[in-house]
Amino acid sequence: MVEAFPCINTCHRILSMRLSSEQLEDGPRPAQFGCSLLITAKSSLVAALTYLSYDHVITFDTEIAYVWKTPWSLGKGLFIFNRYFGLIWFLITVYVSFRSFLTNKVCYRYNIWMTTSAILPHVSTGCILVSRIHAVYNCNWKVTYITAGTQVISGISSVLLNFLNFPGGVAGPHGLPGCYFGRPVYFVWVSPLVGHTVLCLFMLHRAWRMYVQDGNSPLLHLIVRDSVLYFLTIFPILLFNCIVNFLGPPSGGAGFLWASAVTCAVGSRLLLNMREEHFRRQENLRGPEASYSLAIFRTNV
């Protein structure tokens, strides 16, 4: 382990160095600051990648049965993108994060790609959520236009804010591996936070109506339940990224990692759970209830 991560072990030695009172007044040395970012970002990267990989492993048999053996559709395409784009994104991030002696030019271009591509899973998951809202509101196109328009504005504004307030990119000091942001990143999270909040309010309104009426399809209840759970999971992460990056120093991209991992994993689960529930129930449903369930399924996947 010591030989595998010599730079991280060097960081531990640098961070454990005692500073004089004059050095403390001047603030941490660049090497110490870079090492702090290194350890934070690498630890977060390993944890997020482990979480995403674990989700792939435990749901792979369900994915084969209810996704790959079914005809192609928009929902299937969104699932595969959410599922495997995140994995590819993390593999590239791991490669860059553990490579030493990168140049500032390379890190600048890499951070452009990283911050821009991190928006894509939020866009694809937003499309999944809009389709679910379309279903639970009984194909109300007025609601669909509002929620879809919100997601379009959210995606475009995220890209524009990213380029207008791009944090830059710098290589690790003293040959430390990875790339780092030149300043905190929080603008890029504002738009997804607002867009997801709008979708959450629509879904919570529908959940309340279903609770009062208590007469809808179990598949609709599953759609609402999973959607609300997704919002409860992703909302704190997006809010955390906004607040911490606004008030604190650059985090080395740690917030990006968990926002991407959770969006890819949980976003894919939204479709996977519904497909599994639909195909299991279809074996026992007959008549109008089966037709209603099939209509909901086609609307979403």
Describe the SSE topology.
Elements: H1 6-15, H2 21-26, H3 30-68, H4 74-97, H5 104-117, H6 120-136, H7 141-164, E1 170-171, E2 179-180, H8 187-213, H9 218-247, H10 254-282, H11 287-300
Antiparallel strand pairs: 1-2
Helix pairs in contact: 1-3, 3-4, 3-10, 4-6, 4-10, 6-7, 6-8, 6-9, 6-10, 6-11, 7-8, 8-9, 9-10, 10-11
Describe this entry's structure for a reader:
By secondary structure, the protein is mostly helical. Helices cover 78% and strands 1% of the residues. It has eleven helices and two strands, in the order αααααααββαααα. The protein has helices spanning 6-15, 21-26, 30-68, 74-97, 104-117, 120-136, 141-164, 187-213, 218-247, 254-282, 287-300; strands spanning 170-171, 179-180. Strands 1-2 form a two-stranded antiparallel sheet. Strand 1 (170-171) and strand 2 (179-180) form a beta hairpin.
Instruction: Return residue spans where pLDDT drops below 50 for at least 5 consecutive residues.
Output: 1-6, 14-28, 287-297
Please give the order of strands in the largest beta sheet: 1-2
Give the mean pLDDT: 75
Structural class: mainly alpha
How many individual helices?
11
C-alpha termini separation: 45 Å
List keywords for this structure.
301 residues; mainly alpha; two-stranded antiparallel sheet; 11 helices; 2 strands; 78% helix; 1% strand; disordered N terminus
Task: Summarize the entry for a quick read.
The chain is mostly helical. It has helices spanning 6-15, 21-26, 30-68, 74-97, 104-117, 120-136, 141-164, 187-213, 218-247, 254-282, 287-300; strands spanning 170-171, 179-180. The protein is 78% helix and 1% strand.
